[in-house]
Amino acid sequence: MFNSQNKFVRYALQAINYAVFIAIVGYFSTSPSYRQLADDEAIITISISHAGELKELCQRRSQEELMALPPNMRAPMECSRERSPVIIEVLLDGQPMYSHKAEAPGLYNDSGIDIYHTLKVSAGSHHLALKMDDSVLKEGFTHHFSQDVEIAPAEILLIGFESGRGFVIR
């Protein structure tokens, strides 16, 4: 059957195969090198969760309308559930970098929207301007932000939005 010499050759070939496999895995774990950013680049990340304003104003029901409804549905105000789309614009040094219009999701277009976008920019001093419109009842953008920012190489500048405070930069 098998003699000791065949066994030795078999183990030697198996060791060579393992060594070649380990060398290939070791090489590709470090090479070729991959860099996500150049030495002078940074990232601006926009991460916003926000619900637009209601598309229509609530209407007060008259006493006759209330009496015509079943007792469990006699709310004094009638309000539509549909929300306005949210439009956001990002300008860096006066140049438009990102513009997006997000329609409200949901069965009745009544849910909040989520916007997530990443921009690669050159590191250094920039003038950042943000505009957001979340109401079709008002003319123009309803939220504004403008600030000079210093972005270091490989830094991530995070832009968020809080309903009570407006735009937040971290």
Keywords:
single chain, 170 residues, alpha+beta, Immunoglobulin-like, 2 domains, four-stranded mixed beta sheet, 2 helices
Describe the structure.
This protein has 170 residues and is α+β, with helices and mostly antiparallel strands. The protein is built from two helices and ten strands. The chain has two domains: 34 residues; 101 residues, Sandwich (Immunoglobulin-like), CATH 2.60.40. 19% of the residues lie in helices and 41% in strands. The protein has a four-stranded mixed beta sheet with strand order 6-1-9-10, with no helix packed on it. The protein has a four-stranded antiparallel beta sheet with strand order 5-4-7-8, with no helix packed on it. A two-stranded antiparallel ribbon has the order 2-3. The radius of gyration is 30 Å and the shape is elongated. The N and C termini lie far apart (73 Å).
Which helices and strands appear, and what pairs or packs with what?
Blueprint: H1 4-30, E1 41-50, E2 59-60, H2 63-68, E3 77-78, E4 86-92, E5 95-102, E6 113-122, E7 124-133, E8 143-151, E9 156-162, E10 166-169
Parallel strand pairs: 1-9
Antiparallel strand pairs: 1-6, 2-3, 4-5, 4-7, 7-8, 9-10
